[in-house]
Amino acid sequence: MGMKSRIALGAVVGIVVIGAVSANSGDTEGGSGDKGTSASAEQRSGDTKPDGGSNAKPAEDKDTGKAPQAEQFKAFVQKNGTPQEKEAISHVTKVQGADEQNDILDAADVYTDFTGGIMGEGTGPAKLIASAFADWKQSDNGLVTVYDADGEIIGNGSF
What we know:
Blueprint: H1 2-27, H2 32-46, H3 69-80, H4 83-89, E1 92-96, E2 106-112, H5 123-136, E3 142-147, E4 153-158
Helix pairs in contact: 4-5
């Protein structure tokens, strides 16, 4: 009888935890949902086809007045970084996930033009890139992963 009660109690606690995580994931984005809504409204009002489609390219953030995440990151490091971080950041080609934070489990990806994977030339600069990313973005529970040109992990760090 005691074992069945423990299993039932564990299942109830698990369901409550999952419900709490899923409820918080939509509420604490720091207003990023509002930003996307206003950007979409600007895009629809200023650049739509008669049939309701958009003439704007979705990958272009400059149409909405917001620079791509990689450019924002590079600009921050150029202003605030050390000479070594500035050199390392020149190899960054793409940043994903920096705007999507909920402080539960934040994950960002930084892509570079380094080659050779974990044993290649980019391992040292990857740590500098991860450190600079932590200066740029803060999270209660964030992980930034740095990838080489082939998509292999070359480093990571907390932010």
